[in-house]
Every structure is written in C-alpha cells, then in structure tokens.
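Please, structure for the following, as tokens.
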Amino acid sequence: MNYRHHYHAGNFADVMKHALLVQLVRALQKKDKGFLCLDTHAGRGSYDLASAATGDTHARTPEWPEGAGRLWTRPAAELPPGVAEYVELARAYDRREGNATPEPRFYPGSPLLVSFIARPQERLVLCERQPEEAAALKERLQFTQGAQVRETDGYGAVRALLPPLEKRALVLIDPPFEAQDEWAQIVAAVKEGLRRLPGGTFAIWYPLTERAKVDLFFAELRRLELPPTLAAELVVNPPRAKMVGCGLVVVNPPWKFDAEAATTVEFLAPLLAQGPGARGDVLWLVPER
C-alpha cells in the first residue's frame, strides 16, 4: 500500500468530509431508533500530525495547516453549527491525548469522530484491510462499547452486514483510490447495498482530480435507478493542482441535509481556499420526489 493517510490527515478534504459526517450522524439521530454505522475503509482512527512532516525517505510538507489548522482557533460563534461541533470534537480529542499547544497535534479520523457522538443504540462496524492500520484501530477502540473493528475488505462487508438488525444504516465509503477499478467497486457496493437495504444512507467520498472521471461516476450511479441522491463538492485549488477538491455523494440523505451541506461547503470554500475560484456546491444527482 502506497497511501499513508497520516501525511494528509487534517487537510481540507478531511475537514469537509468529517464536518459533513458529523452532520449526517446527527441528522439520523433525530429518530430514537438506532442504526448501524459501517465504515468500509476506516484507517487507524487517530493520526499524529507531527509525523506528517516526515516522509519515508525525505521531509514532507504537512497538509493540516491549510485544513484543520485554519479552523482550530476560531471561536464557535464564527462557525456554522455543524462545523463548530466537528471542530470542538477534534479539539477535545487533541487535548485528551495530551496536546497543550495552540496548534493541533492529534487528529481523530472518521471512526473516532462517530464513536464520540454515537448513542448506546448505535452500532459501529469499522473495516480496514491493512493489518497494521486495523490493529491500531482495534487498540484505540478496545474499550468503546458498540464498536467492532474487522480486518477485512470493506466492500465485502456491505454484502455481509446489510440489512442490519436495526433496519437503518449509515455506510461510509472512503477508499484511498489506489485501485484501477475503485470507481467500479464503489458503484457495485452501492448497488448491492441498496438491493439489501433500499432505505439505507450511503456516503461516498471522492477526490476531484479529473472532472470527466467524476461525471462518469455520476452517470454510472444514475444507472442504478437511485433514490434521492445529492453530491456536495468543495473546490479549493487552482485548476493546475493535482487534486482541486473533493466531494461527498449521499444516497438517501436525511431530511434537510442538503441545506446543512450547502451551508458547510459554502462556508469552507473561502476559508480553505488555496487559489482563485474556490467554491462549494450541492447538486442533486436524483432530486427528492
């Protein structure tokens, strides 16, 4: 595996993804009944940002200063509520891990953020196929009730775990996009997931590198005869950058989530901009009926 997320932890993509993930969980929690939260590519759960400046053979430029670093010291009153909660969760974790400096040091990944706000009736199944990453996540969550870490292929877990006993689910699909057929695997997983749980909420993170690839991905998704589905996108880099932004597709979004997502990405765009043309948009791939 070439991808090492600790080099990218806390960057603009994490900020956008994690702020929206917290909002998704909170939206689903408006109903008393619990749900399964399935993370198909969970990672190690916690990242030491100090190691982001150290590469395998040479120093690297850490990415968190242009991401979480730009929100870290801002008062909650200056942030939209959904963004403010995400920032406070991340800052509280950083303090619990022993960081007393004004800059972030210990950054929580998606599994930890969800575990911080999960209710007793929620169940977390966190999949990670890389042995070292899975072991680190197991150690981190060994005392967290209702959280199970599996060293397995997350795409296969969609087939194995749906439909859940709870009859409700949030499935986060956040792969490293290393495999040649990653887009096809995502579409196949969503197809299988909807077949097994038509009302499930599926959140798929994707990089904005080539617009043509993303548009083809959208077209493939639409061929599944989707339920209501939206895409929230954040562009922060000028066109010449390798990755200009990222997006989150949400299948079966909770009620009014589109407005919350729009508020979030529109707020983050100018704050996290790394060049001209930064923007935040929400578009419906399949409108609500």
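The chain has a mean pLDDT of 94. The domain at 5-286 is CATH 3.40.50.150 (Rossmann fold).
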